Amino acid sequence: MNKINFYQLTTIGDRAENQDYMLNKITKDYALFIVADGLGGHQGGEMAARFFCQSFVRLADKFGSLIKQAPERTVLMWFNAAIKLMAEEFEGHPAAEGAYTTCAILIITESSTISAHCGDSRVYRMNKDDIEWRTKDHSIPQK
Questions:
Q1: What is the pLDDT of residue 102?
Q2: Residue-wise pLDDT tens digits, 80-127
Q3: Is 132:126 a contact under the CB 8 Å cutoff?
């Protein structure tokens, strides 16, 4: 993978606590960026965001090598496997009931750029002249 410059920014907004969690993994074959935001007011939202990001990145070696052959299918399998792993992390924890998160995922390879998202987390493309919305979120104002 060629050199990638990236920046991460989070803000608490109007909440009592920041439930954002971000991770990335850059290899010679792909760059993975993921952000999740626990749903405010829901028990365990910050844990859901952290567990989902960690699970997705933990599975990167397994699924990252498959991304070139079948991108859409691989991302769907990867996403579902991360949800299952996240559920295992929550197993037996009282915060598991009602813990929710949004997420935005960006995977860059030499030949493609893949994004996936759920909820009101978005992926943007930025350059020195402009900021473009790359994904339309699932919130009511965006519909």
A1: 87
A2: 999 999 889 888 877 777 788 889 999 998 888 888 888 877 787 777
A3: yes
| Beta partners for residue 102, in sequence order | 37
- Quote the Cα angle for 24-35-117, to 5°: 115
132 compared with 140, residue with greater pLDDT: 132
Given a contact cutoff of 8 angstroms between Cβ atoms, the answer to whether 32 and 43 are in contact is no
CB atoms closer than 10 angstroms to residue 50: 21
Under 8 Å between Cβ of 71 and 114 = yes
Nearest-CA neighbor of 53 among 27, 78, 28?
Answer: 78
pTM exceeding the 0.85 threshold for the entire prediction: no
Alpha helices in 9-44 (DSSP H): none
Place of tokens 């599975």: 59
Q: Which two tokens stand for residue 140?
A: 């009511």
